[in-house]
């Protein structure tokens, strides 16, 4: 495959890149155009060595020539290269599909070669867009892969002319054909200038030129289509926004009466809250006053309890004195009885006994009177203590009612005004009174007997 199919202009040439250069019979044609950069890529080790030898003499020339011994595909690394007995058909892919066209084809060697995407190879090179740049692709089975890689990297339109040798039919897996390559490049703004099938009708060489005007038109059409799509979307968004605005206006009109009503309710609630807060403050003051009064009542109750304890202690002491005087009274009664039974007793003894009895009776009556007085005081103290206890219980109940009522009003709950706390019934403590049965003492009976005797003597 000697003809590259390129038609280079007379102007300055920038980069000429030849993928799958082989023996590159067009090398002299390339050099005659004095390109600024010449890149020859060939994975066959023998062919690559021959190209390096032929370009070695160009080191001093204006053309920068470079030979890369590697294959071009979608990934970087190393892969086996199928060297066939038809050397121009050697490829990276399994050549099994080629046997349908050429049954005698066979693999003569499979050396491991370096592989890399073309975009990666061109990444470090300065491609001058002001100059004419050309690309030749003779990589069997990798045509679409190379073109797709250049399109994705944005380098495809840097080439003004692209020549692709591609099969009339796709014989290898994943390979393109004339129609697929033409469709792909046409979509990217390239037009088909010529198809050379004279040298090999099964693998014709197709030359494409970048139609910049067509590319600009396509870009404009794409931009117009994009803007139309954006305008349609904006129109849809505008319609949706208008519909939404109308719906919101309707919602606003429907919500306005409710909002006014809610504002009125809010104002009333604020007034109720202020009243409840004022009532709570008043209740707090009442509570503080009642608490102070309750403290005073508790102090009075404590003092009354102390007085009651003292009265009870005094009553017990009088009881003890009464018990101590009881033997004297009995002794006097016994002496009086002896005096009454013994008629021979002296009058002096009788007078003495009478005097002793009178003294004892006087002391006893005085004791009884004091006892009754203390008992009355005790009863009065117990009544007073009962009244104080009832007042304390009433004050405590009132405090609890006030505390519950204040909390309900502060919480703002309408139900709290309807439910009154149950009042705890006040239990009245009955003041116990002891009934003291008066017993006739022996001394009184003795005194009566003596009086009767005196009456009989007088009579």
Count of structural domains: 2
Reported CATH architecture of the largest domain: 3-Layer(aba) Sandwich
Strand order of the largest sheet: 3-2-1-9-10-12-11
CATH superfamily of the largest domain: Vaccinia Virus protein VP39
Order of helices and strands: EHEHEEEEEEHEHEHEEHHHH
Instruction: Assign the structural class, choosing from mainly alpha, mainly beta, alpha/beta, alpha+beta, or little secondary structure.
Output: alpha/beta
Descriptors:
single chain, 459 residues, alpha/beta, Rossmann fold, Helix Hairpins, seven-stranded mixed sheet, three-stranded mixed sheet
Summarize the structure.
The chain is built from nine helices and twelve strands. With 459 residues, it is of the alpha/beta class. It is rod-shaped, with a radius of gyration of 67 Å.
Question: Would you mind describing this structure in some detail?
Answer:
- The protein folds into two domains: 13-210, 3-Layer(aba) Sandwich (Rossmann fold); 286-458, Helix Hairpins (Orthogonal Bundle).
- Strands 3-2-1-9-10-12-11 form a seven-stranded mixed β-sheet, sandwiched between helices. Strands 4-8-5 form a three-stranded mixed β-sheet.
- It is an alpha/beta fold.
- Residues 413-448 and 453-459 have low confidence and may be disordered.
- The protein contains nine helices and twelve strands.
């Amino acid at each position: 495959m000697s003809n590259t199919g390129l038609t280079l202009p007379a102007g300055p040439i920038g980069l000429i890149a030849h993928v799958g250069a082989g023996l590159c019979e067009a090398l002299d044609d390339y050099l005659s155009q004095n390109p600024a950069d010449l890149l020859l890529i060939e994975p066959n080790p023998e062919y690559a060595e021959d190209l390096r030898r032929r370009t070695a003499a160009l080191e001093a020339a204006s053309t920068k020539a470079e030979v890369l011994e590697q294959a071009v595909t979608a990934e970087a690394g190393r892969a086996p290269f199928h060297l066939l007995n038809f050397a121009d058909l050697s490829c990276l892919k399994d050549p099994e599909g080629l046997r349908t066209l050429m049954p005698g084809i066979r693999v003569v060697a499979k050396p491991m070669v370096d592989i890399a995407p073309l975009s990666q190879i061109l990444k470090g090179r300065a491609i001058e867009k002001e100059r004419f740049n050309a690309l030749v692709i003779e990589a069997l089975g990798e045509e679409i892969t190379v073109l797709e890689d250049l399109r994705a990297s944005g380098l495809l339109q840097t080439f003004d002319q692209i020549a692709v040798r591609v099969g009339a039919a796709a014989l290898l897996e994943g390979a393109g054909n004339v129609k697929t390559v033409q469709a792909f490049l046409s979509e990217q703004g390239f037009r088909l200038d010529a198809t050379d099938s004279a040298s090999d009708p099964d693998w014709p060489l197709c030359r494409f030129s970048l139609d910049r005007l067509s590319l600009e038109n396509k870009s404009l059409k794409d931009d117009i289509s994009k803007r139309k799509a954006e305008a349609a979307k904006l129109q849809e968004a505008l319609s949706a926004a208008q519909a939404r605005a109308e719906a919101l206006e309707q919602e606003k009109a429907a919500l306005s009466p409710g909002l006014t009503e809610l504002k009125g309710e809010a104002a009333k609630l604020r007034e109720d809250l202020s009243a409840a807060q004022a009532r709570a403050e008043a209740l707090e003051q009442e509570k503080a006053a009642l608490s102070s009064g309750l403290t005073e009542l508790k102090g009075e109750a404590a003092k009354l309890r102390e007085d009651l304890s003292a009265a009870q202690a005094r009553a017990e002491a009088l009881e003890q004195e009464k018990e101590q005087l009881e033997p004297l009274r009995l002794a006097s009664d016994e002496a009086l009885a002896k005096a009454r039974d013994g008629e021979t007793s002296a009058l002096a003894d009788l007078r003495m006994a009478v005097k002793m009895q009178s003294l004892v009776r006087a002391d006893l009556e005085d004791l009884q009177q004091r006892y009754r007085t203390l008992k009355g005081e005790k009863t009065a103290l117990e009544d007073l203590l009962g009244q104080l206890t009832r007042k304390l219980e009433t004050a405590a109940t009132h405090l609890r009612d006030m505390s519950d009522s204040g909390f309900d009003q502060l919480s703002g709950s309408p139900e709290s005004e309807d439910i009154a706390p149950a009042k705890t019934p006040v239990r009245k403590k009955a003041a116990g009174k002891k009934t003291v049965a008066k017993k006739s003492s022996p001394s009184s009976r003795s005194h009566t007997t003596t009086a009767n005797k005196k009456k009989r003597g007088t009579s």
